[in-house]
Design goal:
The chain has 21 helices and 23 strands. By secondary structure, the chain is of the alpha+beta class. The structure holds zinc ion (2 copies).
């Protein structure tokens, strides 16, 4: 038999259906689904076959010196025993095997993991590899016909990364968590990519905290023309830093009887169509229509698996010459949403796509590969699919053309300015409306130089300089890319982990005290862990491994030596690190100040394992509030309207790592009062139960 091994069950089914013309039959290999036709069987893995870990004897955090992990043996642990059994059966039965996992480092490694199991049983097995960028009939048939060899160097580069991340992550996480005496749920996670990323957010937050706002004033005038039309203009100076200056200018303007248009300039401006989507620019665009990076990537993956868009993990922003643009646009001629525009595009003599700076050969930029009707997808899937289609069509479109008008007005010896923008030719904006917002159309009436104008209204507006913005999740991904932190496949996952580990909350992300303390300690005692340089250097090494210029073992060994140096520095400063982390853990537990005595309120766990909010002035003050029994408590910086001394809480439920999403618990005092009200009505239940108070239970009680 000839076995074809794909990365997932869904791809196995689709590829079998394409290669068999819909004739493949579902069969079982042990407990694993497979699809058989003729002499071929297609079977799907579920991502990685193995994960890397240290031997069990290293499991006890309290007994093993974290330093020992650096040189510890690394073992492969099978993720699904049933899958290993199925692979062993396949090996016995197979004459040939084709690896058909996703075409990138991770996919190559997953293929090699499966191969290692197969070859243990049958070393002489004939193996080849098919590589495709979209799960469409054409792409699959072509790549099956043009099968090549497995790229062991590419797989090695992914494996080296996995090994290095395990060693660094485990050793440093354990060291820091032990120093802070935080084991179990609230441990301090440290990582090669994660920590420099977190440092970016903490540094920005410090910049915001240091910022001192400064007042300034602006003058906004409404002017009337000879034929009664009005337009607004602002004083040429823009910001007045002294109120006196602004008031003087205001007086002069008000005393003038009439003004004159002293200058009028018109300029035609081209607004070029966007370049094709790579993963980063896709994530940014998806974020502007409300998707977090993780959600955007999950939806893109689903669209890819359904054969609707090309592979979504790509660094490429240049369409390959082999991509038949005319045929692709032709697909959309009959589409209800894009048909009209596609037909218009096809009337052009030649389709000339835009191109970005990056050109790689593995995958094309993200583009649609087949047409689907709106009602066949769920709402969010459609939004993302529509974005990809519109972006694709936009890259083949003409530039938009704007006419910019700049007007100067002289009035009472002062100069005012007005600006207008008018869209003359929509070009790509007709199909790609997503960026219109920033370039809002503001029209001026028809004006000419020398024309008289009169002051209709004049406002002195007080403003304040604003601190720099927090970095949005999509902005963070762009920044990570610029600094060489992580890869197109991992960046959104890393950000998700910062949320799961309670290092950040909200969107844009705001670091918690825990994050500040960790980054402060690392910056002081292990600066290397907060800077992108080391990780970027390592990414370079990964490239060299995949190009066959370096060996995996060498790179891992070098990275072990690097880690030993970092470790030495941290071990020398263990006391200071411990102190600052312990203080941060305490600070993160402060929920506000006590409404009864004014001391700090903090949350804690009682000896009986119950969580509550108590007063630091106990036993003099008995004030306390109940808390839900499970989930990680995150104190936000948002105060309750009714109890302004208390911060609102969020509860992060275990296992559900939805980026930026947590249960908004709100004010613990309000929650308690609500619960008490209900219970008074029911005339029952002790306060004891209040400690289990959570919204779901309240809802159930309502229904009774
Ligand atoms: Zn108190
Ligand atoms: Zn409240």
């Amino acid at each position: 038999m000839h076995y074809i091994i794909t990365e997932k069950g869904t791809t196995a089914k689709r590829i079998a259906s394409i290669l068999s013309g819909g004739k493949a039959k579902k069969v079982k290999i042990g407990k694993i689904d497979a699809y058989e036709f003729g002499d071929k069987v297609v079977v799907g893995l579920s991502g990685h076959v193995f994960r890397l870990d240290f031997p069990d004897s290293y499991n006890d955090w309290t007994k093993i010196d974290p330093y020992k992990l650096i040189d510890a043996e690394i073992v492969e642990v099978a993720l699904k025993k049933d899958l290993i059994k199925a692979l062993e059966r396949i090996a016995k039965d197979a004459d040939a095997v084709t690896i058909a996992t996703d075409y990138d480092r991770e996919g190559e490694l997953i293929g090699v993991e499966a191969l290692n199991v197969l070859k243990r049983v049958k070393p002489e097995l004939k193996v080849d590899r098919m590589r495709y960028s979209a799960i469409t009939e054409q792409a699959i048939k072509e790549s099956f016909a043009a099968r090549t060899v497995v790229d062991y160097n590419l797989a090695d580069s992914a494996k080296a990364r996995e090994m290095i991340d395990l060693i660094w992550g485990a050793a440093l996480t354990r060291f820091v968590s032990l120093a802070a005496n935080r084991l179990g749920d609230g441990f301090f996670s440290v990582g090669r990519v994660q920590s420099p990323t977190l440092a970016l957010l903490v540094d920005k937050e410090k910049e915001i905290a240091r910022f001192i706002p400064r007042k300034y004033w602006e003058l906004h005038a409404t002017l009337r023309t000879e034929n009664g039309e009005t337009f607004t203009a602002t004083h040429k100076r823009g910001k007045f830093w002294a109120l006196e200056d602004a008031e003087n200018a205001k007086k002069k303007l008000e005393s003038a009887k009439e003004g004159v248009i002293s200058e009028l300039k018109k300029r035609l401006r081209r607004d070029n169509p966007p370049t094709p989507f790579d993963t980063t620019s896709f994530i940014r665009a998806a974020s502007s229509i409300g998707f977090t990076p993780r959600r955007a990537m999950n939806i893109a993956e689903s669209l890819y698996l359904q054969g609707l868009i090309s592979y979504h993990r790509t660094d490429n922003t240049t369409y390959p010459e082999t991509l038949d643009l005319n045929t692709l646009v032709g697909l959309f001629k009959s589409s209800a949403e894009f048909g009209e525009y596609a037909t218009l595009l096809l009337k052009k003599k030649q389709l000339k796509p835009t191109a970005g700076k990056k050109k790689t050969t593995d995958h094309p930029p993200i583009h649609p590969v087949s047409v689907i009707a709106r009602d066949k997808l769920d709402k969010d899937e459609w939004k993302v699919y529509e974005l990809v289609v519109r972006r694709f069509l936009a890259t083949l479109s003409d530039a938009a053309k704007w006419e910019d008008t700049a007007v100067k007005v002289e009035l009472g010896g002062e100069e005012l300015e007005a600006k207008g923008h008018e869209l003359k030719q929509p070009g790509f904006l007709a199909v790609y409306p997503y960026q219109k917002k920033e370039k809002e159309i503001s029209k001026l009436p028809a004006l000419r130089e020398g024309e008289k104008v009169w002051l209709e209204d004049l406002k002195l507006v007080e403003k304040e300089t604003k601190p720099p913005n927090r970095i949005s999740q999509a902005g963070l991904i762009k920044k990570m890319e610029e600094l060489g932190l992580g890869t197109k496949s991992t960046r959104h996952e890393i950000i998700g982990k910062l949320y799961e580990r309670a290092y950040v909350e909200g969107n844009p992300s705001r670091p918690t005290e825990k994050a500040f303390a960790l980054i402060d300690s690392l910056e002081k005692y292990a600066a290397m862990m907060t800077k992108p340089d080391m990780t970027r250097a390592l990414e370079q090494e990964m490239d060299w491994i995949s190009e066959g210029k370096r060996k995996k073992e060498e790179v891992v060994e070098e990275s072990r030596e690097m880690l030993k140096a970092v470790f030495q520095e941290m071990a020398d400063n263990r006391e200071e690190i411990a102190k600052s982390l312990k203080e941060a853990v305490k600070a993160d537990k402060i929920v506000g100040t006590c409404p009864e005595c004014g001391a700090n309120l903090f949350w804690a766990t009682s000896r009986r394992g119950k969580r509550f909010i108590g007063c630091s002035n106990y036993p003099e003050c008995n004030f306390s509030l109940p808390l839900p029994p499970s989930g990680r408590v995150i104190v936000t910086r948002e105060r309750c309207d009714v109890h302004p001394t208390l911060f609102k809480l969020k509860i992060l439920k275990k296992g559900k790592g939805k980026t930026g999403r947590a249960w908004d618990f709100g004010c613990p005092y309000c929650n308690y009062l609500q619960w008490k009200n209900k219970n008074n009505n029911n005339n029952k239940d002790s306060k004891e139960k209040g400690e289990d108070n959570d919204n779901d239970k309240d809802k159930k009680a309502d229904k009774k």
